[in-house]
Design brief:
2 domains, single chain, about 475 residues
């Protein structure tokens, strides 16, 4: 006669577990039904891991873009040098002797991004290693017309100086300080046309997704994510959004234009980021700044570029500490941190306290104010801090001033974030859901997909005034 003892995994399961061969102690058995002493606070092991905020704090503005790329205009120097490459060697001239300079065809036409100009008869140039020999230009010989002319010219020192020899294929650059003409002579036949550089930058299209199934969306976990919500997918979706925002900013900082000849990019043109713009057209230093002498060298270069008086100095922790050590050794109040008499705070409404509240520590030197701030992006070991504190990018200096457009005269910020937008449709930050749960009803799959998309770029105006520090 068969007797039904009930489901094996209910009452009888407990009886079988008390088999002497399996039994250890009563506590082990009871622990299976005890509630764990769970602490539901999520520990922020690495603190706030988001890295966005640099562009906002440095004054970058947001603007709408309405084409496939943004274009802007930058003027050239008012007094460009005569720059060229020699096509033939010129022997050292004796005292008062003339020297013939032959210009190569490759450099006879001013390039869009150089200060090359035609040398005209009657010009006075500065030559020599120290630019201390004044020479007179005469006997200009041309082949061709206009800026396409290939020419050579003779130079003769105004005094008894001996002209240095010039080898063939040598790149030369001579300042033009003026001209001289005899009484009763005619005007020049050639003139210098002002040059303007047209710059363009395309957009990055950045995307991200996160998915959760209906079953996962209804699971309750052990961790309180805020407001008494214990659904873990909420945390994952929040992290996905933050990663997306960080990547969007990093692409505006670290993006590069792609090679048009490489088919691997599949019609993706890329976009010039801040670092690439400054490394290409700006001021680069290959080491840390740790002494006032090094600051002074930088200031001299900033003077050459017509820089503004205030800079946001974002750096990694090692550079941050080196500046602190440098300032601690300063002997005058002008070298002290947040010295009100030395520093300017125009970027913070002339309020030193506002700068401090935002995390900036400021110091003045040579008429410039540097507002120093540590930069999480350069310290994060999974990002630009991956190589350690002694290699790679260690800091940037961003002018906190506006620049004047030579075409329109408009004043614009040094950095401008652009997002595609038109007629009420903005691609700054698109977020939508696809699926059949959590309010989404546009798919039959038992899940929801969170979608993120942005089309953006960064315009770096007057990159020659920006500074990048990189340690090899």
């Amino acid at each position: 006669m068969a007797i039904n003892t009930g489901p094996a995994d209910v009452a009888n399961a407990g009886i079988r577990r008390l088999d002497p061969a399996k039994y250890t102690d009563l506590a082990s058995y009871i622990n299976e039904v005890n509630k764990p002493d769970n602490r539901d606070l999520l520990v922020k092991t690495y603190g706030n891991q988001g890295i966005t905020g640099f562009l906002k704090l440095t004054g970058a503005v947001k603007s709408a873009g309405t084409a496939e790329e943004v274009q802007w205009w930058e003027e050239q120097r008012l007094h460009p040098k005569a720059s060229f490459t020699t096509a033939a060697a010129s022997a050292a001239g004796a005292a008062k002797a003339s020297q013939t300079i032959t210009v190569s065809a490759a450099s006879s036409e001013p390039a869009a991004n150089t200060a090359t100009v035609l040398v005209r008869e009657g010009d006075i140039l500065l030559v020599g290693d120290d630019n201390d020999i004044r020479v007179y230009v005469h006997n200009v010989v041309k082949t061709g017309t206009g800026h396409n002319a290939i020419h050579k010219f003779d130079i003769t020192p105004l005094d008894n100086s001996t002209l240095p020899a010039i080898a063939s294929g040598t790149a030369k650059s001579f300042p033009i300080i003026g001209n001289m003409f005899a009484a009763g002579t005619d005007q020049q036949s050639e003139y210098i046309e002002s040059n303007v550089v047209k710059r363009t930058n395309g957009y990055n299209i950045i995307k991200e997704i996160y998915k959760v199934t209906g079953s996962q969306a209804t699971n309750i976990g052990w961790i309180n994510l805020g407001g008494g919500d214990y659904r873990w997918y909420i945390k994952s979706e929040q992290d996905t959004r933050q990663r997306f925002l960080d990547k969007r900013e990093m692409m505006m900082l670290l993006g590069q234009k792609t090679s048009s000849t490489n088919t691997a990019f599949d019609n993706i043109s890329g976009s010039e980021g801040y670092f690439d713009a400054v490394e290409t057209r700006g001021i680069s230093a290959n080491d840390y700044i740790s002494t006032f002498g090094e600051v002074d060298e930088l200031i001299i270069e900033l003077d050459k570029q017509g820089a503004g008086p205030e800079y946001a100095f974002y750096c990694n922790r090692t550079q941050d500490l080196k500046i602190d050590d440098m300032l601690a050794k300063g002997l005058s109040p002008a070298n002290s941190m947040t010295a009100g008499v030395a520093a300017q705070f125009g970027a913070f409404n002339n309020n030193k306290d506002s700068a401090i509240e935002l995390g900036f520590r400021s110091f003045g030197r040579g008429g410039y104010t540097f507002h120093k701030h540590d930069w999480k992006l350069l310290n994060e070991p999974t990002l630009l801090g991956a190589s350690g504190s002694d290699k790679g990018y260690v800091g940037v200096m961003v002018p906190m001033s506006t620049v004047v457009d030579p075409k329109s005269g408009d004043r614009n910020p040094s950095l401008e974030m652009n997002y595609k937008s038109s007629n009420g449709y903005s691609r700054e930050l698109e977020h939508w859901m696809t699926g059949s749960i959590l309010g989404a009803t546009n798919d039959t799959k038992d899940l929801v997909q969170f979608n993120y998309r942005s089309e953006c770029n960064l315009v770096t105006r007057a990159a020659n005034r920006h500074v990048i520090l990189k340690k090899s």
